[in-house]
Amino acid sequence: xxxxxxxxxxxxxxxxxxxxxxxxxxxxxxxxxxxxxxxxxxxxxxxxxxxxxxxxxxxxxxxxxxxxxxxxxxxxxxxxxxxxxxxxxxxxxxxxxxxxxxxxxxxxxxxxxxxxxxxxxxxxxxxxxxxxxxxxxxxxxxxxxxxxxxxxxxxxxxxxxxxxxxxxxxxxxxxxxxxxxxxxxxxxxxxxxxxxxxxxxxxxxxxxxxxxxxxxxxxxxxxxxxxxxxxxxxxxxxxxxxxxxxxxxxxxxxxxxxxxxxxxxxxxxxxxxxxxxxxxxxxxxxxxxxxxxxxxxxxxxxxxxxxxxxxxxxxxxxxxxxxxxxxxxxxxxxxxxxxxxxxxxxxxxxxxxxxxxxxxxxxxxxxxxxxxxxxxxxxxxxxxxxxxxxxxxxxxxxxxxxxxxxxxxxxxxxxxxxxxxxxxxxxxxxxxxxxxxxxxxxxxxxxxxxxxxxxxxxxxxxxxxxxxxxxxxxxxxxxxxxxxxxxxxxxxxxxxxxxxxxxxxxxxxxxxxxxxxxxxxxxxxxxxxxxxxxxxxxxxxxxxxxxxxxxxxxxxxxxxxxxxxxxxxxxxxxxxxxxxxxxxxxxxxxxxxxxxxxxxxxxxxxxxxxxxxxxxxxxxxxxxxxxxxxxxxxxxxxxxxxxxxxxxxxxxxxxxxxxxxxxxxxxxxxxxxxxxxxxxxxxxxxxxxxxxxxxxxxxxxxxxxxxxxxxxxxxxxxxxxxxxxxxxxxxxxxxxxxxxxxxxxxxxxxxxxxxxxxxxxxxxxxxxxxxxxxxxxxxxxxxxxxxxxxxxxxxxxxxxxxxxxxxxxxxxxxxxxxxxxxxxxxxxxxxxxxxxxxxxxxxxxxxxxxxxxxxxxxxxxxxxxxxxxxxxxxxxxxxxxxxxxxxxxxxxxxxxxxxxxxxxxxxxxxxxxxxxxxxxxxxxxxxxxxxxxxxxxxxxxxxxxxxxxxxxxxxxxxxxxxxxxxxxxxxxxxxxxxxxxxxxxxxxxxxxxxxxxxxxxxxxxxxxxxxxxxxxxxxxxxxxxxxxxxxxxxxxxxxxxxxxxxxxxxxxxxxxxxxxxxxxxxxxxxxxxxxxxxxxxxxxxxxxxxxxxxxxxxxxxxxxxxxxxxxxxxxxxxxxxxxxxxxxxxxxxxxxxxxxxxxxxxxxxxxxxxxxxxxxxxxxxxxxxxxxxxxxxxxxxxxxxxxxxxxxxxxxxxxxxxxxxxxxxxxxxxxxxxx
Length: 1219
What we know:
Layout: H1 34-86, H2 104-117, H3 123-142, H4 151-171, H5 177-193, H6 195-200, H7 203-220, E1 227-228, E2 231-232, H8 233-244, H9 246-249, H10 255-266, H11 281-290, H12 293-307, H13 312-321, H14 333-350, H15 357-361, H16 363-374, H17 405-412, H18 417-421, H19 435-455, H20 460-473, H21 482-492, H22 494-501, H23 506-510, H24 515-521, H25 526-530, H26 535-563, H27 567-572, H28 583-602, H29 604-607, H30 609-616, H31 627-633, H32 651-671, H33 691-725, H34 731-758, H35 760-767, H36 774-795, H37 797-808, E3 816-820, H38 824-832, E4 844-848, H39 862-876, E5 885-887, E6 893-895, H40 899-909, H41 917-943, H42 953-960, H43 978-984, H44 986-996, E7 1010-1018, E8 1025-1032, H45 1047-1061, H46 1064-1077, H47 1080-1083, H48 1088-1096, H49 1104-1109, E9 1111-1114, H50 1127-1138, H51 1141-1152, E10 1169-1173, E11 1183-1185, E12 1190-1193, H52 1199-1212
Parallel strand pairs: 3-4, 9-10, 10-12
Antiparallel strand pairs: 1-2, 5-6, 7-8, 11-12
């Protein structure tokens, strides 16, 4: 076949003219061809260019050297002329410095020569500069010189030379005090002559003086008393400080420049933070006496307002341009602490360390302090109040920063009632203030309040109380209440209005605004210097951050107010202090919180997108042997979280804050409905068709992650043991283990982010469950239980062995117990306590009658139900000894707060010494009984068995707060409120409420911060013999009177003692047992009323039609093929429909032992509601077997007889037996 149109099949010859390889393995060409010529031409051109560059470089070098040599020759000539002019013709030596120049012209000529040839690297020129300066001082003293013409520029050049020499002096190991003093006198003289010019460009001036003062001040701390080579350092320090204040005292057009440079250079010095007993503290006192604080505060505040703490970098850049090396003193925590302490000290000194109200009323002070507080880790100076406990129940490890007494004293002075309470004293309350001014003012005050709350977490309640009380106790009638002030500022914010309209918009508003911070923090990096966001974008981000601060301060304060506000005051929309909000505005607030809270949990992965990107960029390579070194060397500085652009604001913090407040508002609405129906539901944001299955999948994913977490924890423990061996020759193995440990840490962080991403529905259910309908949550709960049962049955070999033993008639196992009638709780505790969480498994119960004989019957589930109901009835009934549970005025149960104290008192009366083994065992036994009772209640909920036990709402609220992603363990997340006190003790509530609203002087009541507990010491006497025990509510509480100012704290402490501290161990033991049966995260899906419904059934009316549809019949009553009910059964349902709801409940309790219907209807009742015949005797009463929910109904002929007999049995309990 022809390959071309020529008709010739011969392959044409290939000719290569380029010199390139024709194929990969061919030889290099000979260099002939057009391309080779081009390459040679390019090489020759590059060679000629290099030769020209070398020639040009040589010319530049020669030119520079010739210039340098010429200048050096000229300098030598000028130096000789200067020396000749300075020499005394008689002695040949330099004139004495006390000899003034004969004329101003001679002095100016000598100065001109000196500044031209002087080289500070040579000692001789330094002596010439020193000589001229001292002589010129005497010249000026004898005949003053008018600084006109070239005098100013030459003086400035001389001043620069003297500053550079002083900087070199400050860096020397030893300082000659006489020489240093001479230079300082010269500098002081020059600065006095040029105050305006010095202030205009004062960066280097104050930087060098700060270095020198710091160096001299450090010598004063030495044991030899501040002696330096050649003399006393105190004189040099005095002259240096006098030089410092010269540009500050002279008011010129550049005085603000001087104050700015002074603040940057001096406020963060080590000597400025010296303790008061140190000699160096005199430096601080001297400067505070002469510095104009208002001007200093204004300048620093203006700089911070413009560019934050980054404003100092312009100062640093100016220093570097002068050839000096400036450290970034504000980048470390210690320096910022000293800066904050010094600034507060100057403020307090200006107010004579009094008038604390002015601390927060000064706008510049508020701005500077809040900015610095937000840049520091929280709690580092709050150690003295650690005993009061953290407001959040958590305690983070303090950073490794040493805070001396002076800095701590200054920062702690911020926390005082006058300063915080009068935060709004300087606010513009006039109507003439513009909207912009009001918004800006609210932002600044909110920033300060939030900064103080964040920095002093253990004094949060006090700070909130002072803010709450401040607007009412300041003596200014026109001042707006704090709550209303920040609420109106919140409503005006764009963040509030945006989220109020659209919950999805909260994602972008919450996402950390760290792009400009990262660019700035990179310092001199290429990225930081090349990229800057648009100023409009920066301003918008700053506005959003400020609005978030206003909102968060309002949420903090309103959460505190709701703790001490009862329902009457809340629903009145006013209150004694006019801090309550109208109900229509609370509706808007609840909608905002609902939208915000939903987004915080459901879209957490979208909000933390930057964190995920950072984590994904730090993956490890298994094939790089230097990966560990690279990871360790390239560690990035830890950046603080900045949710919404607010520095230091973490997502967990805002989650906890919003969750806490929205729960409080929801509880008010659940107690007394004031919001529309279905107001809390967020089903519009969720796909409810597959919601339950999706939640179940998320729960399985969470369980898998927890198992992986446990495995990694075990691996860490093993690695820790291996690292202790430090075997020789195992470096590579140790390195590999360290890499694996780092990978596990990354996996943990990834799992947390993954859980936020894959389990948003679970997060919603555990933290804000009321967003989902109650029936849906109950179905999810039952599905969780069913899945757990299946998992346990498939994995528990003990239970399978137990079942096999029962079938084969083998020996009893640990899941079987013999229970005596009348001793149900004691026998169950003795035989089942050791099971622990295995009590979830099915158990077999054999009841014994009063004669010890086993009752006949096969436990198909009914006997277990009878057992559980009997145990609960026995455990919660009053006894002749220590009652584990007591009731309030509404006959609702809660743990006996004084149970432990009563047991201890009885043990002491029995002669047992506290701390003995028997004494401890008795205490432990009581707590174990509480724990076991918690397991029994959990077993009932696990099995879906309803028991007629009603708990107090405040106690049930602790159940609901044991779960959730951000809740602490046990009951530490529970926060007592005044309404909880009312549920506990109506008398105590009335007393506290009267104290809160008392119009007179509370101190006249003679109360102090103590509480008196009453414990029973003899339960058998009539009446019971009691004993009063007085305890302090806070350290030294007996010496702290209750006043109008601290009464809210007293109420808060009293509620915390009664509801949380006193019953803590009993409650914790009960919840420990409950959580071993029911996962705490499952309990967190319900509020207190819903949990009561899970325990004892719904309070809604009994649905007879639903009960009829789900009833089974036995004996004669079995429905035949015709599908018709027996006539007696028809009469029964007719009578049930005619009964009142109370009578229906009595019948239901008569049959099932509980008067309430199951949560999801009678279809879920186990065992099923059943009816069977019991003969035709018309005088016989109906009877029941509650263990199997069976009604034994005689075949009555008429409706009247059936109704009479049924109600008689239901209300009297007659006819009860056990089949």
